Recover the amino acids of this structure.
């Protein structure tokens, strides 16, 4: 099976100008994802896990390394050097990202956020509304909140909305940065059901988790990161391809 994503010797550091200090977030990280896989990344807080995902999504620009992605729209491209317009297109149609935090435009309701994600994929308004209702109901977001601004939501409600907005697009590659961090058990199971559904539909996923029980029988492979370095690839959490 061909690799959908290959990271080669990725390094990213940050400069603290006020301290005149350079912090190495990740160094010479290499990993790969085969099409249809769900690969987990584990490690302590501050080990560099989120930095890897943000470099793939191009929220961060690494100092060195390559991130090769087999795009449906553009063929094989390096996400490190790809033009900004190309990255925007990939975020819209192929690559999704779920973080612990919800950053949205002000005066945009929960319903509008999810519906817009579907419409920008090229679907009509009726389909978008129907899928929005299905997704908001799946995550049991109270109907009284659907037409409210997410700024008033609790942390768990914001996270559920963030997951709904990303998953409703059924992206080709989905990056998950602690998607169950502040969710109760019932909500975690809702996320797990959708992940399993997306996997059946062929979505490739790379996820960061502290909840190893959640990963059990879900991930195909696991990369462990310590102090910004991938030091082990374990198969014990894996599920058969």
């Amino acid at each position: 099976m061909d690799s959908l994503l290959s990271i080669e010797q990725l390094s990213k550091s940050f400069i603290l100008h006020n301290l005149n200090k350079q912090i190495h977030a990740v160094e010479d990280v290499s990993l790969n994802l085969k099409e249809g896989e769900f690969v987990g990344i584990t490690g302590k807080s501050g080990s560099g896990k989120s930095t890897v995902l943000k470099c793939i999504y191009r929220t961060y620009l690494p100092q060195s390394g390559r991130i090769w992605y087999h795009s449906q729209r553009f063929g094989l491209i390096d996400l490190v050097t790809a033009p900004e317009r190309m990255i925007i297109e990939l975020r819209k149609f192929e690559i999704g990202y779920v973080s612990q935090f919800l950053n949205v435009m002000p005066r945009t309701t929960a319903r509008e956020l999810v519906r817009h994600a579907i419409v920008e994929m090229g679907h009509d308004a009726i389909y978008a509304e129907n899928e929005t209702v299905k997704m908001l109901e799946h995550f049991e977001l109270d109907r009284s909140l659907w037409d409210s601004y997410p700024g008033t939501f609790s942390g768990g409600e914001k996270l559920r909305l963030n997951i709904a907005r990303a998953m409703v697009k059924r992206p080709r590659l989905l990056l998950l940065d602690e998607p169950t961090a502040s969710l109760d058990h019932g909500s975690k199971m809702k996320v797990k059901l959708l992940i399993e559904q997306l996997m059946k539909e062929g979505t490739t996923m790379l996820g960061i988790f502290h909840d190893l029980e959640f990963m059990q029988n879900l991930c195909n492979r696991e990369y462990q990161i310590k102090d910004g370095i991938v030091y082990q690839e374990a198969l014990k959490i894996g599920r058969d391809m």
